Amino acid sequence: MRYPAWKYLLILVVLVISTLYALPSLYPDEPAVQISGAKAGTQIDQSIVQKAEQILKSENIASHDNSFTNNAALLRVDSSEIQLKAKEALRRGLGDNYVVALNLAPTTPEWLQKIGAKPMKLGLDLRGGVHFLLEVDMDKAISQRMETSAADLRRQLRDNKIKFNSLTLNNNTITMQFANNDDRSAAMDFLRRNGNEFTQQAVATTNGSTLRLNYTDARRQEIQSYAVNQNLTTLRNRINELGVAEALVQTQGSNRIVVELPGVQDTAEAKRVLGRTANLEFRLVSDLNDQYIDPYTGQATGSLPPGTEAFAYESLDSGRQLLLNRNRILTGERVQNASSGFSQDTGGAEVNITLDTAGGKLMSEATRNAVGKRMAVLFIENKQKISYVPDPVTGTQTEVRTPYTESVIINAATIQAVLGSQFRITGLDSPQEAAELALMLRAGALAAPMYFVEERVIGPSLGQENIDKGVLSVQIGFILVAIWMVVFFRLFGLIANFALVVNLAMILTIMSWIGASLTLPGIAGIVITIGMAVDANVLICERIREEMKWGASPKQAIVAGYDRAYNTIFDSNLTTFLVAFILFAIGTGPIKGFAVTLMIGIVCSMFTAITVTRAIVQLIYGKKRNLKKLSI
User: Fold this and answer.
1) Beta bridge partners of 407
2) Does domain 276-458 match CATH 3.30.1360.200?
3) What residues contact residue 106 under an 8 Å CB cut-off, 6+ apart?
4) pTM given for the model
5) Going by CATH, does the domain composed of 30-105 fall within 3.30.70.260?
6) What CATH code would you report for 5-23+460-622?
7) Rounded to 5 degrees, what are φ and ψ at 125?
8) What is the pLDDT of residues 56-72, one digit of tens each?
9) How many angstroms separate the CA atoms of 405 and 303, rounded?
10) Which parts of the chain span the membrane according to its record (predicted)?
11) Helix H segments across 160-295?
12) Longest CA–CA separation in the chain, Å
């Protein structure tokens, strides 16, 4: 019955680590309000905590243990009701330059946090989380698609040599001027042959023949449906990029999307990234830029030439502008992959972009005859300005949301050669901003802007009473199993019970390390793991009994019991592990949670049921020379 020293050392290390890293799960989190910058690169300091405390004090809202870490302020409050009041007060007091979000603050002791110990995350069904309700701007979805259709139509008419005097877009209506009715009829016939997505209205005017185009009802419905579905897909991709586990993203009605984030998350970052409707446009700098941009002020002067637009350069506050061609080379929808890094030339932040096949073709065609000219990267962001208007009768503050668009040229570089599917964007303010831009491009573009309609904390979806009953049933089951093991196997049963406790601590530790969320199906996986771990010890104990009945000495029976039961235990655990892996590979949501917990539990039970129990048995019986009886 010799047992190597390195195994004792391994068990001791596992016991210490499991105990330390399982302890944080005993400390419940408390509601808090988190404040961070509206942009990823915005830097805030400790003064924001003092300003927030003054705002809450003026509203008679108490906070405690306020802190400032990782460029964000965290103010803790006593209840979820106070948390909502504090959030509204801070949002009104701080303005649009900050993101105020609900969060859950850990209460884990500082000495545990310093060694990286953190509580295991709980899913929506056990913990609850943060609920966002976002509304898709359908009018903007139509207007954005109409702009694209107008540009495509202008190009198609020219390619097919259909004459027209002008093509303008106003209030989602395309108005085309023709020299005569024959040219207008040719355009109408062309539109009927190519998709027929417009309703056509021929109008006689003093300037010649006019044709007005609007989307058909079927086309508008198609665009609106696409906008919701595309935004839904993009939100899911962004949440996956953020690493939020067990999140719920689904539609509500015809134009709203519900997002629910479980457990402790950086909800301020999630709110900023989820609600940020940003896109890129690649345009050529106009050849007339130097003529219309004042060299001293950097601002556009006079009436701009047709087909051009002036935008802020580098930042909204820079006071500089560039004149760009109205026609876009391509948009961020053509981006297939994006990653952030540092430029070897300037040392600043950059985003490396890979376009899809169609995007690479468009970029190549646009830059073939533009070598030596400048190409600008236009960053367009749709936002909402929140203001509060007092009701003249009741005097209560009413929230008013006004949408607006910010357009900034973040980069304008000279085209050195014909570009293809891969290139880079430089000139970004910070690595954080580059990483966030790469995330949004990688996750996909939103088809239309979205605005936060509601934000609140949600309780456990199963109901607290059901959760309490589930936890109670697990506790009762564990106690009954422990009693049964002690009654039937005496000291060996007591050793098996200790191994079960170690098994649970190891499961909690590993799940907190990998950031997995524990859900009710996960608890079911833990229960099954307990049963399998007990089953392994039952096999070992029964095998030891059989060996003693066949005449083996107690020490011989112990060695034979562990050695001969090992193959059976390993085979049964391996087959169960393979099934759990298949569930994880093809399952979603709760199925994955169950599979992850079961796989972790199987690995831990193999260690505790065989290695840990045998080490304890060795310590108790290994040095006894005249051993004639076992407590089994």
Assistant:
1) 380
2) yes
3) 24, 27, 29, 113, 118, 119, 264
4) 0.57
5) yes
6) 1.20.1640.10
7) -70, -25
8) 999 899 988 888 877 78
9) 22
10) 470-489, 494-514, 520-540, 574-591, 597-621
11) 181-193, 217-242, 267-275, 289-292
12) 119
